Amino acid sequence: MKDMLNGWVNPDEREMERRSLKRDAAFIGTGMLLQTLLMQFFFTVVIMFLLLLGIVRPDAVQNDAYLGLGNTAYLLLYALVYTVAMGAPMLLASLIFHMRLHPFGAHERVSVGTAVFSIPLGMAMCVTANFAANSIVNFLYVFGIAPPDYPEMLEPTPVSLLLNLFVIAVLPAILEEMVYRGFILQTLRRYGDGLAILVSAILFGLMHGNILQIPFAFLIGLVMGFMVVQTGNIWMAVALHFTNNAIAVLLDYAILNQSAEQANRLILIVYGGCALIGLLALIPAVLLRSPLLRSLSPSRSLLTARERESALLTSPPFLISVILYILLTCANVQLVS
After folding, report:
1. Rounded to an integer, what distance in angstroms lies between the CA atom of residue 87 and that of residue 100?
2. Can you tell me the distance from the alpha carbon of 82 to that of 34, in angstroms, rounded to the nearest whole number?
3. What is the DSSP string of 221-286?
4. Given phi > 0 = left and psi -120 to 50 = alpha, else beta, which region is 27?
5. Section 146-165 average pLDDT
6. Predicted TM-score of the model (pTM)
7. What percent of the chain has pLDDT above 90?
8. Helix, strand, coil percentages, rounded to 5, for the chain
9. What are the tens digits of pLDDT across the range 10-30?
10. pLDDT band (50, 70, 90) for residue 308
11. Are 173 and 241 in contact (CB under 8 A)?
């Protein structure tokens, strides 16, 4: 069999690559399964432990959003649980499969110009993704699917703002990028950058477990995956992830005591400004030949797209983790009352 890039291909080499992909898919699937279990049950286990110690009262669990701990203590507890549930699974899976991966290591240097102008460009893409995701949310609302009802963790105090920035911006930027653009994307790049970006974005979207969050998470997952591949540096995605989440937290804090009309106006101004700055950043990005404006390198995989897809979906841990993600998403669907 002949490959357009590599000439004549030994069938044994194709089979070795297929087996390698199935093993890597098993590694990713195992990590996702461990992550799902921890995210679903670890918080409950911690609360039960606190109940046994008498730190949390049973009535507070039912009636108080902060479990009777107060905003500061609750956010610190949430940060601990999230760090373990998000950070530990892929590290454990890498030990199980003897994978020597360094999600934050061995990355290329990025020029100052690329670093400066990539974040505004990325934010403009995030604003576009947000607009597209909101259109999907509005479309689903017509069919009776309600927006998610999240507990309010932000209070009008500087301490609460700082803790929310840490919990919602700093931790996800580091831990989620470590998992999805570090472990997962870097593992799959040998089979094609397009496949690696797409699969990591799909899993990143499904991880959020809410049908109305998935579209936005998937779209920005594509943006951040593309940024990592094109710049060769995961810290660019970390910076973009932090910036996007931090702006959301700061906006929520700014509109705490404003009317709905004032809040919508401020949100429009801020995100409109982000989009405008991103468009202006295109000029120096073009002049500096930013890697974000280049197309992906062609895949050098010996397998066809269908063969790679088959190898992924015939890996039991990978397939089970995807199905479990989908089932949990369906279970979390809220209907308009």
Report:
1. 16
2. 13
3. HHHHHHHHHHHS-HHHHHHHHHHHHHHHHHHHHHTTTS-HHHHHHHHHHHHHHHHHHHHHHHHHHH
4. alpha
5. 84
6. 0.91
7. 58
8. 75, 0, 25
9. 677 889 999 999 999 999 999
10. very high
11. yes
Q: Could you read off the pLDDT of 243-254 as tens digits, one per residue? A: 999 999 999 999
Looking at the chain, how many residues does it have? 337
How far is 226 from 237, CA to CA, in rounded Å? 9
pLDDT at 2: 45
Q: What is the pLDDT of residue 5?
A: 47
What letter represents residue 91's amino acid?
A: L
321 closest CA partner among 26, 85, 92, 21: 26
Q: Could you tell me the two tokens for 120?
A: 């505004």
Q: Residue 164 CA to chain centroid, in angstroms?
A: 18
Residues 151 and 146: their CA atoms lie apart, in Å, by: 15
Q: Say which amino acid occupies 319.
A: L
Q: Are 145 and 215 in contact (CB under 8 A)?
A: no
